[in-house]
Amino acid sequence: MIRLTIDSLHFEADAKIKTYIHEKIGKLDTFVPGRARTSVHSEVKLIGPAGRGKKQYTCEVILHVPHETIVMHASAGSMVAAIDNVEDKIKTRLRKYKQKHQVRQSRNLIRNMFDKLQKR
User: Pick from 92, 100, 44, 109: which is nearest to 68 by CA?
Assistant: First the structure.
């Protein structure tokens, strides 16, 4: 489970929204390499409609992973829809992050094995 910090601006986030965020964003650690899971933390910023008549909600997620910071934001007509949109974007970025860092680990493993064989 990812450590979360939730901030809201221009509206009050109720318990249902916070629970929904923990369900959606908190469980994205499955897309992070195993060694990095303990150090991942996230900041979620919820921004409500700023003026009269505007019904645009924005959700911004700043995900701190080793060697990188992933920032995504999405806007929609409801806060739940904005959270869903940003979750999809973060999943895509985390898949790329995981693939990139697993390849690096594989290369290092192969180099270490090759070096050990040469020393014999």
Answer: 100
Residue pointed to by tokens 């900041």? 43
pTM surpassing 0.85?
no
Return the structure tokens found at 95. 């898949």
Predicted local distance difference test score (pLDDT) of residue 104? 61
Place of tokens 């806060």: 79
Residue 64 region, left (φ>0) first, then alpha (ψ -120 to 50), else beta?
A: beta
On the question of pLDDT at 63 being above 80, the answer is yes
List domains and CATH numbers for the chain.
3-119 (3.30.160.100)
User: What one-character DSSP code corresponds to residue 50?
Assistant: -
Statement: residue 44 has pLDDT above 80: yes
